[in-house]
Specification:
14 strands, alpha/beta, 424 residues, eight-stranded mixed β-sheet, Rossmann fold, six-stranded parallel β-sheet, binds ligand SAJ, 16 helices
Length: 424
């Protein structure tokens, strides 16, 4: 449980996205005076009106409590009066897979301009090993500040999963890499205020690599599940049964196949490893598998459609029960189907985006095929009997094993499940 002690230190969190906003809120709820910064003026206005631009369970209560206690305010630029600056800006990769650290550089430049001796700078954004030094140090030195002597520098990668961010911010262990041991200790003091898990101290590069190891491990595991799905289809067996049974082994934990790995992390972060070590073959091949699954899913959908027919993509969030559509497998699939000349509509109960409706009836009407692309709870509750009269044909492709196939078949639907040649 968070306790709001009265802490005199002031913290500035730069970048108010899925990580920065919850982090700023939780630090403020722990008693620090927090200024949340973002270059997006509209977002700052929204936050000043006490509205939340994202949905994350538990965030609203903490956010409102912190603002109510006058601990959390917002600005478009970092203030001079902070003791610590935490950078939570996006670190995407360019279309060619090379790291795009422009947001980090911009944020670091803005912070470097207001730093004073004795301040702490923490990078939370995911970056390649060596990048904290590469980006920050020249900017600090330009200001006449010596890293580790005048300003403390640390990397503390976020490792929380969207959908459970608040819980995981509090409960997960943290790894803090310091430029010097004292840098790490300074950062630890801040994270200790709300982290109930253990905090492990290491050096900068190790902390940077730890984050990439975590996400690459998960990405490779999912890619393997995807490959197993392709093999199972080839053999005429059901991959979901294979995985369930294999996972009964005490040392096996295979994840689930799907139409693609989306989001801002798993399909992106492994490229940072390739940036520092281009012969990382396992990583490279696993990333390719993600691409292969998208093509395969498109093929499955196409095989269930005749020219000019309409497909409805159910779920454009990158995964179930979140409102984030970055690197959305659902959108990617829809785009490919459109390119093949099919009509496509998008439905999602959580995502607000152009061309996506939250009204199921509207999305499904006159459709020939439903494609379940995100494992939202709402889709588990879909009733085939209610859906069927709206459609022009009774067909459903489940890319996430969400629906109860027997129920849909009983209603006359042709049902196809990714990773299984038949449903039995
Ligand atoms: N996915 C599958 N099969 C699975 C699990 C996931 O296809 O069995 C897909 C999802 O549908 C989604 C993508 O993979 O499209 C990524 O989803 P995710 O739930 O695996 O991960 P993220 O991106 O939401 O969060 C990950 C987490 N990393 C790890 O678990 C190692 C989280 O802890 C990190 O903080 C986050 O990346 C991040 O920000 O780096």
């Amino acid at each position: 449980m968070l306790t709001m002690s009265d802490r005199s230190e002031r913290i500035c969190v730069v970048g108010l996205g899925y990580i920065g906003l919850p982090t700023a809120s939780i630090l403020a709820a722990s008693g620090f005076h927090v200024v949340g910064c973002d270059v997006d003026e509209e977002k700052i206005e929204v936050l000043k009106r006490r509205e939340l631009p994202i949905y994350e369970p538990g965030l609203r209560t903490i956010f409102e409590g912190a603002i109510g206690a006058d601990k959390l305010s917002f600005s478009t630029s970092p203030p001079r009066e902070a003791d610590a600056y935490i950078l939570c800006v996006p670190t995407p990769v360019s279309p060619d897979g090379s790291p795009n650290l422009s947001y980090l550089r911009e944020a670091a430049r803005a912070v470097a301009g207001v730093l004073e001796k004795g301040n702490l700078v923490v990078v939370e954004s995911t970056i390649y090993p060596g990048a904290t030094e590469e980006v920050l140090f020249p900017l600090l030195q330009e200001q006449g500040l010596e890293p580790g002597k005048d300003v403390f520098v640390a990397h503390c990668p976020e490792r929380v999963i969207p959908g459970h961010i608040i819980k995981e911010l509090i409960e997960n262990d943290r790894v803090i890499g310091g430029y010097t041991p004292e840098c790490a200790r300074q950062a630890e003091k801040i994270y200790r205020s709300f982290v109930e898990g253990k905090i492990f101290i290491t050096d900068l590069k190790t902390a940077e690599m730890v984050k990439l190891a975590e996400n690459t491990y998960r990405m490779v595991n999912i890619a393997l599940a995807m490959e197993f799905a392709l093999i199972a289809e080839h053999l005429g067996i059901n991959v979901w049964e294979v995985i369930t049974l294999a996972n009964r082994h005490p040392r096996v934990d295979i994840l689930n196949p799907g139409p693609g790995m989306g989001g801002h992390c798993l399909p992106v972060d492994p490229y940072f490893l390739l940036h520092v070590y281009k012969d990382a073959r396992v990583t490279h091949n696993a990333l390719q598998t993600n691409e292969i699954m998208l093509a395969h899913s498109t093929g499955l959908a196409t095989s269930m459609l005749s020219p000019g027919e309409k497909a409805t993509i159910l779920g454009v969030a990158y995964k179930g029960n979140v409102d984030d559509a970055r690197n959305s497998p659902g959108f990617a699939l829809g785009k490919r189907l459109k390119e093949k000349g099919f009509e496509v509509s998008y439905h999602d109960p959580h995502v607000k985006a152009e061309g996506v409706t939250n009204e199921l009836e509207k999305a499904i009407r006159h459709s020939h095929l439903l494609v379940v692309a995100a494992d939202h709870n709402e889709y588990r509750l879909l009733k085939p009997g209610e859906v069927a009269p709206l459609m022009k044909a009774r067909r459903i492709l489940d890319l996430r094993r969400v629906i109860d196939a027997a129920l849909w078949e009983a209603e006359g639907f042709e049902v196809r499940l990714l990773g299984a040649s038949s449903l039995k």
